[in-house]
Design goal:
Keywords: Aromatic hydrocarbons catabolism, ATP-binding, Coiled coil, Nucleotide-binding. InterPro entries: AAA+_ATPase, AAA_lid_NorR, Homeodomain-like_sf, HTH_TyrR, P-loop_NTPase, PAS, PAS-assoc_C, PAS-like_dom_sf. It comes from Priestia megaterium (Bacillus megaterium). This is HTH-type transcriptional regulatory protein TyrR. The chain has four domains: about 100 residues, Beta-Lactamase (2-Layer Sandwich), CATH 3.30.450; about 90 residues, Helicase, Ruva Protein, domain 3 (Orthogonal Bundle), CATH 1.10.8.60; about 160 residues, P-loop containing nucleotide triphosphate hydrolases (Rossmann fold, 3-Layer(aba) Sandwich), CATH 3.40.50.300; about 50 residues. Helix content is about 45%, strand content about 20%. The chain has a six-stranded antiparallel beta sheet with strand order 2-1-6-5-4-3, with helices on both faces. A five-stranded parallel beta sheet has the order 10-13-16-9-17. A two-stranded antiparallel ribbon has the order 7-8. A hairpin with a 5-residue loop joins strand 5 and strand 6.
Length: about 450
């Protein structure tokens, strides 16, 4: 073989490498529409071998359902380049650019098509459209929610609670809020105050479980100066007196000692208080709203809570259901807290549909408070788009990674061999020769493995 022939062979090899290594499918027919040559990308697009195309007419391939419509036929009819989207027999979508090639005297010589697989893009577009539709549905659900002075709900159970609140807010009666920790009892207490005729007057809260027993009475009723070591010389008003003409919310009422319960009963009956260490009675006008997550009836039977105080407090009981029993309230709450904390921290954090679905799937043992805490954490620490992996409870939705199967291991070894051979020779012809495979197989594997490794 002469040097000239070797040079021509080298050029042909390089052209073949370019032809086979193209990310686009290249499809060439003669002027009549008979297939002359295609690259191996066709095998992926149509699930047929290269040799199945050679010599066939594009009209025959179209009638067989291999692809539709045929861009080549349209170019032969019009002698003009066109672009179209084509669907294949394997369910893939291709963006086809087809152009005519003419002889020097202007006659049609051949038709060349370049096709790029758009299936992943179209699937991505479909998913984006689904996400947008899902988000719109969530927004519609949010718009259907009832908002009462900043507390949102969509559930019938909470709408009944709202109805009761609106009826009793303006009535100067004691209210007992019942429900698990975190359901929003303090929010309801504030709402009762805001809707009442006392809204222009003080509102105070006291968590009865947060103070030691020896301090609870002085906090509630106040004390005279010099009553005990560490007391203010001039004395101090208790929270009941500070709430005069307003509302006092006593959370965890079941934690009061029997002694404090007795004095609170006296307040409810006589509308007076007696500060610790004092003999004087102070008249007060205060509305008491109490709350507990305990079973007060059982505590009464066990002698841990005064029966008469229980009856005084239990004039209007309002039970707030846990979040797991009103799942339709989760998304309105999520959006409410998201808007609030985005405003507070000057962020623009959003949740993906899958993240929202994860919120719906949680049991929320900590109820509304737990949702609020998690949203605040995500707004403070998260990216602008919160996905499933960003959620603190994401592990509950994680899928176990697949074990290495024999085909996976074989593919791993094959990849290493192809990459090593290509780095050594930089030619699909030489790679094919070293690995004992055809050149078209070598080109496909180089495109698959070498491109992947460089992209990653």
């Amino acid at each position: 073989m002469t040097i000239h022939k070797k040079h021509i062979q080298q050029i042909n090899d390089e052209l073949y490498d370019i032809f086979e290594s193209s990310f686009d499918e290249i499809f060439v027919t003669d002027a009549n529409g008979y297939v002359l040559v295609v690259n191996s990308e066709c095998e992926k697009n149509y699930a047929l071998k290269v040799e199945d195309f050679i010599g066939k007419h594009v009209k025959e391939l179209q009638e067989m359902g291999i692809f539709y419509p045929s861009a080549t036929l349209k170019v032969i009819e019009s002698n003009q380049a066109i672009e179209l989207v084509q669907k294949t027999n394997s369910g893939r979508y291709l963006h086809v650019r087809t152009r005519p090639v003419f002889t020097n005297d202007g006659h049609l010589k051949s038709v060349i098509s370049y096709s790029r697989d758009l299936t992943d893009l179209m699937e991505l577009k479909r998913k984006v459209e689904e996400m947008e539709e899902q988000l719109e549905n969530y927004k519609k659900e949010l718009n259907e929610a009832v908002d009462l002075e900043g507390i949102v709900t969509k559930s019938e159970a909470m709408k009944k609670v709202f109805s009761t609140i609106q009826r009793v807010a303006s009535v100067n009666t004691t209210v007992l809020l019942l429900g698990e920790t975190g359901v929003g009892k303090s929010r309801v207490a504030k709402l009762l105050h805001q809707l009442s005729t006392r809204k222009q007057h003080p509102y105070h809260e006291l968590n009865c479980a947060a103070l030691p027993e020896q301090l609870i009475e002085s906090e509630l009723f106040g004390y005279e100066g010099g009553t005990f070591t560490g007391a203010f010389r001039e004395g101090k008003k208790g929270i009941i007196e500070l709430s005069n003409e307003g509302t006092l919310f006593l959370d965890e009422i079941g934690e009061l000692s029997l002694s404090a319960q007795s004095k609170l009963l006296h307040v409810l009956q006589d509308r007076t208080i007696r500060p610790v260490g004092s003999t004087r009675a102070v008249s007060i006008d205060v509305r008491i709203i109490a709350a507990t997550n305990q079973n007060l009836e059982q505590m009464v039977e066990e002698g841990k809570f005064r029966r008469d105080l229980y009856y005084r407090l239990n004039v209007v009981p309002i039970t707030i259901p846990p979040l797991r029993e009103r799942k339709e309230d989760i998304l309105p709450l999520v959006y409410q807290f998201l808007h609030h904390f985005n405003t507070v921290y000057e962020r623009n954090v959003r949740l993906s549909p899958k993240a929202l679905d994860a919120f719906l799937g949680q049991e929320w043992k900590g109820n509304v408070r737990e949702v609020e805490n998690i949203i605040e954490r995500l707004v403070v620490t998260g990216e602008e788009m919160i996905t499933l992996k960003d959620l603190p409870f994401a592990k509950e939705f994680a899928i176990d990674p697949p074990v290495h199967t024999l085909p996976e291991m074989i593919e791993h070894v094959e990849k290493e061999m192809v990459i090593k051979a290509f780095e050594q020779h930089r030619s699909s012809y030489k790679v094919a020769e070293q690995l004992g495979i055809s050149q078209s197989q070598a080109s496909r594997k180089i495109r698959k493995y070498v491109s992947d490794s460089t992209e990653h």
